[in-house]
Amino acid sequence: MDSVAESSKNRKRLREEEEEEQQQEEIEAEETSSTDQTLSLVDSLTFSDTMVAVRIMRAQFPHIDKVSIQPFILHSQLYSSVKDRTQVDRELESLRREKVLRVFKLNTGQDDHAIMFLDDYLIQVDRAVKRMEEKKQCNLEVFEWFKTQVIDNKQDPSIDHQELCLLLSHGGKVKDEHISLLINAGLLTRQLIDPNMYWFAIPNIGSVLKGLSQGRKELLSLLNRQRYKEMMLAPLEKKRLRLSLLDMRFHLRDLIGSGHLKTVNTPTGLLVRVSKD
User: Fold this and answer.
1) Is 77 within the bounds of a domain?
2) Nearby residues of 68 by Cβ (< 8 Å), 6 or more positions away
3) pLDDT tens, position by position, 187-196
4) Torsion angle (degrees, nearest 10) of CA 134, 108, 75, 184
5) pLDDT in tens, 10-26
6) Is residue 66 part of a domain?
C-alpha cells in the first residue's frame, strides 16, 4: 500500500515539475518576443543568416490598428540586414521550397516583394474567406480548394490560368465564378502584361502598400532637407511618419536595403545618409 502511495506522489511531483518547466519556457519565449519587439535598429540592423533576420523582423512588425494584416517582410529589408545578398537569395529560395515562407510580388509600381510565413498567410486567407462568407457569396467551396490544392502545391509567386484551373479541379468542377471570387477576395491579381497569368496576393494589404510608397517619399524628403542629407540613426528611428501605417524602423530597413540610403559608422554611432544618384 505504501509503495502505491509513494508511486502516486512521484507521479504528482513529476507532473508538477513538467508544468513548472513549461511555464518557464512560455515566460522565456514571451521575454524573447518582447526583446525582439523593443530592440532598437542600432542594436539589430544586421544578422548572421536569413531565417534569424526574418524572425526578428516579424517580431518587430508594427502593430496596425486600422488594418487586419499579418506581419510581412520586404525582400529589400533582408538585403539591409544580411551582408551577403547571394546568401539571402539562396536561403530564401530554400525556405520557400520547404513551405516555411511564401514570396509575393507587390503592386507598388516597383520591383517589391513581400515575404510572409506560410502560417501567417493562411491566417490572412481565412480572414478573407470570412469576409466573403459575411457577404453571403456563392461558390465558397473554391476557397477550400485553393488552400488544399493550390497553395500546398504551388510555391511560386505567380501561376497561369491553365495550371490554376487544373489544381482547383482536384477539388471540384471549376467555373469562371470561382476565379472571380478568388480575385475579389484579394487572393489573386491578374498580371497587366499577360491576363492569363496571376500573382498570388496578400488579402487586405492595399492601404498598407499605399502607406509604404508614401512613407518612402516622406522619409527621403526628411533627410534631403537636412544640411548634409544625413542624420544619426538613433534619433531618426524615433521620429514618426505621418503618411504611413508602417513605422520608421520598417522604412529605414527598406530604403537601406534598396540602396536609397546608406549607413556610415562614426565615433558617435551609426549615421544614415541619402545615397548619391
Assistant:
1) no
2) 127, 204
3) 999 998 898 9
4) 20
5) 555 555 555 555 444 44
6) no
Residue with cell 538613433: 234
Note the Cα 251 to chain centre separation in Å.
14
Q: Are 122 and 202 in contact (CB under 8 A)?
A: no
How many degrees, rounded to 5, is the angle at CA 209 between CA 274 and CA 102? 100
Distance CA 191, CA 212 (A): 21
One-letter amino acid at 88 equals V
Task: State how beta strands 158-160 and 197-200 pair.
Answer: antiparallel
The answer to whether residue 122 sits within a structural domain is: no
- Rounded-to-10 torsion of CA 85, 91, 93, 96: -130
Give the span between the Cα atoms of 89 and 101, in whole angstroms: 13
Q: How many domains does the chain have?
A: 2
What local confidence, expressed as pLDDT, does residue 12 receive?
55
Residue burial 124-155, b: 16+ Cβ < 10 Å; e: rest:
bbebbbebbeeeebebeebbebbbebbbeeeb
In a domain, 136, yes or no: no
CATH number at 236 reads 1.10.10
Q: Do the Cβ atoms of 149 and 109 come closer than 8 Å?
A: no
- DSSP 8-state symbol, 171: T
- CA 111 to chain CA mean position, Å: 16
**Burial per residue of 70-103, b for 16 or more beta-carbon CB atoms within 10 angstroms, e otherwise:** bbbbbbbbbbbbbeeeeebeebbeebbeeeebbb
Crossing angle of helices 176-184 and 161-168, in 10° steps, is 100
Domain span including residue 266: 206-274
Grid cell at residue 84:
551577403
Grid coordinates given for 131: 469576409
